[in-house]
């Protein structure tokens, strides 16, 4: 049987979510922070870029036609990270995750054999994360998407233990996709906020999960890291050295950091065939999944071609192209 081609990094834009937060206290401040982090030149390019891609982000028929052109059979669709809104109060945050989960599920329901979905949880209100995950699963979604941190909290924060416990018990997928880099204005030119910021945030978030022992306590957690996990997988030797050389670095996790890469999943979106081959070497060919960042300009219009450029052995190519993801998605969560 031919293995379907599965793209695990694809986004949907939800106008309902933005309508919900429009005019609320805190939105202007959040947008001002985003503007400072990205800089005016980046914002001037990003606005028209998103508008040009609105049909692919909102219209299932256009999405499916583009998938056909790309040779993609199935997408794992997650909300645009711009919908996180980790500044909202508890009442609004609950309304937001419900709206986002329901709208994403409705989008995917137009082609349930080809579109599977992920919802959102409000990381800035840890007590709501468990109910938000339950709601997502109740909508038929496969899990949730999270950022690399929330204001004042990293993913190692004990407040998230109930979320990891619930995600592990249910088999829900957690898709780690950063939005915004805490290096702030240092990255406000040349789109460094994305080109450097995203892989940095991935590396920091994954390091928190590893070094704090979250992955020791929750070995069955199904976590997919966007952007190939950022800088961490290709520079994991430095983490191993610190773990073995320093008592403070090795105090929180039981094993060398590199050993945890095989417990995580990574998308293939690294924009370099040499880096992709190294990612497979570091994490294992069974832990890498095809990802395109559909349909944004920092993604790839030809995810299968980008994978083919790495010249992997045929078995590894097929595993990354869709075999690994098919197994992961078919297993599915248990609400």
Percentage of helical residues?
40-55%
What summary fits the major beta sheet?
6 strands, parallel
Q: What's the CATH topology label?
A: TIM Barrel
Query: First CA to last CA: what distance?
Result: 30 Å
Low-confidence stretches: none
Q: Give the count of structural domains.
A: 1
Radius of gyration: 19 Å
- Determine the strand fraction and express it as a percent band: 5-15%
The CATH top-level class label = Alpha Beta
* Class per helix and strand makeup: alpha/beta
DSSP summary: helix tally: 15
The best one-word shape is globular
**Mean pLDDT level:** 96
CATH H level, superfamily name: Metal-dependent hydrolases
List SSEs in N-to-C order: EHHHHHEHEEHEEEHEHHHEHEHEHH
Features:
about 325 residues; alpha/beta; TIM Barrel; six-stranded parallel β-sheet; three-stranded parallel β-sheet; 15 helices; about 45% helix
Describe the fold and architecture.
It comes from Streptomyces luomodiensis. This is Amidohydrolase family protein. Residues 6-329 form the Amidohydrolase-related domain. This protein has 335 residues and is α/β, with parallel strands linked by helices. It has a single domain, classed as TIM Barrel, CATH 3.20.20. 47% of the residues lie in helices and 12% in strands. The chain has a 6-stranded parallel beta sheet. It has a 3-stranded parallel beta sheet with strand order 1-2-3. It has a two-stranded antiparallel sheet with strand order 6-7. The two termini are 30 Å apart.
């Amino acid at each position: 049987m031919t293995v379907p081609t599965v793209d695990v990094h694809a986004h949907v834009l939800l106008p309902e979510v933005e309508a919900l937060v429009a005019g609320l206290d805190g939105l202007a401040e959040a947008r001002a922070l985003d503007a400072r982090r990205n800089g005016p030149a980046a914002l001037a390019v990003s606005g028209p870029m998103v508008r040009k891609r609105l049909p692919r982000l909102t219209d299932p028929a256009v999405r499916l036609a583009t998938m056909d052109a790309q040779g993609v059979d199935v997408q794992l669709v997650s909300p645009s990270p711009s919908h996180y809104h980790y500044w909202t109060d508890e009442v609004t945050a609950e309304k937001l995750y419900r709206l986002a989960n329901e709208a994403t599920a409705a989008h995917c329901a137009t082609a349930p054999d080809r579109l599977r979905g992920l919802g959102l949880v409000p990381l800035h209100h840890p007590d709501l994360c468990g109910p938000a995950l339950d709601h997502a699963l109740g909508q038929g979604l496969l899990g949730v998407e999270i950022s690399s941190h929330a204001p004042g909290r990293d993913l190692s924060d004990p407040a998230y233990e109930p979320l990891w416990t619930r995600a592990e018990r249910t088999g829900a997928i957690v898709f780690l996709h950063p939005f915004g880099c805490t290096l702030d204005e240092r990255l406000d030119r040349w789109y460094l906020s994305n080109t450097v910021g995203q892989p940095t945030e991935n590396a920091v978030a994954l390091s928190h999960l590893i070094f704090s022992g979250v992955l020791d306590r929750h070995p069955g957690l199904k976590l997919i890291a966007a952007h190939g996990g950022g800088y961490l997988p290709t520079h994991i030797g430095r983490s191993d050295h610190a773990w073995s050389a320093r008592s403070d670095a090795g105090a929180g996790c039981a094993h060398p950091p590199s050993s945890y890469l095989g417990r995580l999943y990574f998308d293939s979106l690294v924009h370099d065939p040499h880096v992709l081959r190294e990612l497979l070497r570091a994490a294992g060919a069974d832990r890498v999944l095809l990802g395109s960042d559909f349909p944004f300009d920092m993604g790839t219009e030809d995810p299968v071609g980008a994978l083919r450029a790495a010249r992997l052995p045929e078995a590894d190519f097929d595993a990354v192209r869709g075999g690994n993801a098919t197994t992961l998605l078919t297993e599915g969560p248990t609400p």
